[in-house]
């Protein structure tokens, strides 16, 4: 039976970013240095395949520090943690390693600096996301107010409209955030913004690559986890950029083939915590069903690398 022809547009950049790469490396190096088990507070990155792989090597994933014994190392996830968490670990004299992405740490430092200057913070982010919880937890209760939408800006109650600054979650939609920032600046003309955009380079690059492929595609597959903020944003960006159908899948087995009936072109990308092995698995699934021509659409080249903490580079 003759296979139907399909053009597959592969977005670049896609998949792992430098912060995710570093976080995974931190867990692997901790296991090498201290042996199993090593405890990890929250999923190190939002990807089940990655987390399961590290669990098989001896990592134990927990949600709270209270679940960790005093005598084993604990690692804090790439999303960042409230200031109270490392303080509690230090009080218990635990060995702990902070795998917070350096670009998230930059936002933490920014928030603290503005607070030290007497400014109340507004954070643009998603309620309940670990990065938002971690950033808001850098300052005392009430010092960081959360807005998720333009509508939230109209109702947020601030202490002094003349003494405000804002930060953003690093994994948001660039386009959505622009609108929220505009609304903040219109309501609070004196609000202070970050020196450099908080949305990280990897989030921005992946969204730009999706915008480049979307008009060419009948459908877009985003490889990523349902709890991954940057992956979900890629689905939204693809739909807005001219592709009628965008689907988030964790693995090739999640693909809804019936929804793709009759397609002639498909775009494939992946969130920043999705490994290349899962992207290749999805590509292979399309190659099995279609006579596939692959075109790479590259919109940026990434060569960022973050060092792991010194404690892991020193001998045991």
The counted number of beta strands is 12
Can you tell me the CATH superfamily of the largest domain? 4-hydroxy-3-methylbut-2-enyl diphosphate reductase, catalytic domain
Proportion of β residues? 15-25%
Q: Number of helical segments?
A: 11
Fraction in helix: 25-40%
GO biological process, one term: terpenoid biosynthetic process
Active site: 131 (proton donor)
Binding site for [4Fe-4S] cluster: 17, 101, 200
Keywords: 4Fe-4S, Iron, Iron-sulfur, Isoprene biosynthesis, Metal-binding, Oxidoreductase
Give the structure's gist in a few sentences:
The chain has 316 residues and is α/β, with parallel strands linked by helices. The protein has helices at residues 18-34, 48-57, 84-91, 102-116, 130-136, 150-155, 174-187, 201-213, 229-240, 276-289, 310-313, and strands at 4-12, 38-41, 59-62, 74-76, 96-98, 120-124, 144-147, 164-168, 219-223, 246-249, 265-270, 290-298.
Word description of this protein:
[4Fe-4S] cluster binds at residues 17, 101, 200. This protein is an alpha/beta fold and 316 residues long. The protein has 3 domains: 4-16 and 201-298, 3-Layer(aba) Sandwich (Cobalt-precorrin-4 Transmethylase, domain 1); 18-101, 3-Layer(aba) Sandwich (Rossmann fold); 103-187, Cobalt-precorrin-4 Transmethylase, domain 1. It is built from 11 helices and 12 strands. The strands form 3 sheets. It has a 5-stranded parallel sheet, with helices on both faces. β2 (38-41), α2 (48-57) and β3 form a beta-alpha-beta unit. It is flat and about 65 Å long.
Task: Please write out the topology.
Blueprint: E1 4-12, H1 18-34, E2 38-41, H2 48-57, E3 59-62, E4 74-76, H3 84-91, E5 96-98, H4 102-116, E6 120-124, H5 130-136, E7 144-147, H6 150-155, E8 164-168, H7 174-187, H8 201-213, E9 219-223, H9 229-240, E10 246-249, E11 265-270, H10 276-289, E12 290-298, H11 310-313
Parallel strand pairs: 1-11, 1-12, 2-3, 2-4, 4-5, 6-7, 6-8, 9-10, 9-11
Helix pairs in contact: 8-9
């Amino acid at each position: 039976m003759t296979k139907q022809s399909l053009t597959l547009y592969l977005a670049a950049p896609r998949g792992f970013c430098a912060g995710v790469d570093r976080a995974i490396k931190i867990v692997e190096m901790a296991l090498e240095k201290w042996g199993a088990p090593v405890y990890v507070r929250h999923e190190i990155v939002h990807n089940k395949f990655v987390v399961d792989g590290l669990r098989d090597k001896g990592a134990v994933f927990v949600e709270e520090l209270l679940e960790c014994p005093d005598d084993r190392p604990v690692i804090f996830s790439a999303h960042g943690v409230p200031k109270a968490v490392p303080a509690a670990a230090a009080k218990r004299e635990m060995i702990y390693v902070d795998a917070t992405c350096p670009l998230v740490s930059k936002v933490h430092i920014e928030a603290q600096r503005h607070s030290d200057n007497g400014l109340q913070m507004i954070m643009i982010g998603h309620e309940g996301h670990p990065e938002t919880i971690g950033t808001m937890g850098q300052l005392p209760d009430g010092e960081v107010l959360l807005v998720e939408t333009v509508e939230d800006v109209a109702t947020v109650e601030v202490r002094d409209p003349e003494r405000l600054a804002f930060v953003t979650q690093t994994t948001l939609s660039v386009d959505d955030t622009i609108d929220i920032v505009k609304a903040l600046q219109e309501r609070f003309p004196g609000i202070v913004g970050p020196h450099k955009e908080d949305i990280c380079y990897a989030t921005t690059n992946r969204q730009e690559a999706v915008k480049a492929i979307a008009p060419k595609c009948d459908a877009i597959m985003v490889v990523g986890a349902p709890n991954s903020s940057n992956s979900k944003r890629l689905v939204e960006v693809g739909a807005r950029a001219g592709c009628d159908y965008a689907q988030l899948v964790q693995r090739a087995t999640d693909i809804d083939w019936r929804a793709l009936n009759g397609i002639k072109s498909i775009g494939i990308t992946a969130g920043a915590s999705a490994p290349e092995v899962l992207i290749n698995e999805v590509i292979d699934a399309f190659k099995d069903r279609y006579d596939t021509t692959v075109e790479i659409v590259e919109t940026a080249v990434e060569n960022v690398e973050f060092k792991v903490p010194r404690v892991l580079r020193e001998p045991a």
